[in-house]
Amino acid sequence: MVPYKYVQWDPEKHGGKTSTFEQLFDLFQQLLQYTAGDAGEALNWLTQLDEHYDLTDSETGIGDFIEELKARGYLQENASSIEITAKTERSLRTRSLEEVFRQLRKGGTGRHPTPFEGKGDERLPETRPWKFGDDPHLLNITDTLSNSYRRSGLDDWSLEEEDYVLHQTHHQSNQSTVLMIDLSHSMILYGEDRITPARKTAMALSELILRRYAKDTLDIVAFGDDAWEVSIKDLPYLQVGPYHTNTRAGLQRAREILRRRKNRNKQIFMITDGKPSCHFDKGRLYKNVFGLDRKIVNKVLDEAVVCRREGITITTFMIARDPYLQGFVRQLTEANHGRAYYADLNNLGEFLFEDYVRNRRKRLH
Q: What angle in degrees, to the nearest 10, is found between the helix axes of 20-34 and 195-212?
């Protein structure tokens, strides 16, 4: 037996030591999450942290770190400003994916299972008799041979059509998703930063789909007084504006996008913290921030019904605990036959990820 000698962990000898650049870069990315991709502000905060906590040693400083960021292609300097590059945007999406979903178990092969059995890639323990035209790679060898031995015995062994059994499989489905993000002013009110977790979740979901679900589609819709599409590369820069909440316009834009998609499975994920407070009425913006205005709410519920008729499930991720607003979310969910989660800011990504991967959406008939 080979003897083993256990010693105290030494980073210098056994590896695992993180370089100063990697430590600073990790902190820089965290700061970029809070500054909505503003590199100048993030570097200013990093400099202040260095002054207070001595993040760099006597030989290097934040200036050297900035020059290395430029050399590695993470920063680019213009005439009047310094900006992050596309490489940094990808790095932020990757970091968001790792941060949001770190505690979740690893997924499967990168496709969404449905509750229906049939042709697919994921084998089930259950079996069924073979039929002409079935895929031979699904053959259950053990059960097939057992059937043959029971029928013919060892002395006169043979295989007949009736002996063959195959594994059942899950259908695999492609998904078209529109992620709606509320950019109304309430997302930063009351001393709580709600937009940063929403932005981080959007980046994580987009990176997940780009990496593992190549046949799926993800579109981003931001909504405030109106609704507009946002490209994936612009996600790090999403900021709250002086907006009311036009939920109806967001749902309309999302539905228009999904109508163009070829996938049969279509859904809307909506991240919001507040009630609908405006909508367009005969070309003019009607606003009411006091209470739940039935003129506004009823238009949103009408849109939810239209989504239901078009086979689009709405899943609402409510990041506010106001019982008054939860009543509106219940109405929306009932009208659409959808789902709602009352998520904390710390676990918003986990809620959304689990719902997306498990594909627990209702199938409408």
A: 120
Residue 13: count other Cβ atoms within 10 Å of its Cβ: 9
Per-residue pLDDT at 144 = 82
Distance CA 360, CA 293 (A): 32
User: How far is C-alpha 3 from the geometric centre of its chain's CA atoms?
Assistant: 48
Output 14 or 69, whichever has higher pLDDT: 69
Q: Are strands 278-281 and 284-287 parallel, antiparallel or unpaired?
A: antiparallel
User: Is residue 356 a contact partner of residue 177, using CB atoms and an 8 Å limit?
Assistant: yes
Give the separation between CA 89 and CA 74, rounded to whole angstroms.
9
pLDDT at 75: 96
Q: What is the pTM of this model?
A: 0.74
Q: How many CA atoms lie within 13 A of 307 on its CB side?
A: 34
The pLDDT of residue 35 is: 95
Q: 114 falls in which pLDDT band (50, 70, 90)?
A: very low
Contact present, 249 and 296 (Cβ < 8 Å): no
CB count within 10 Å of CB 289 equals: 14
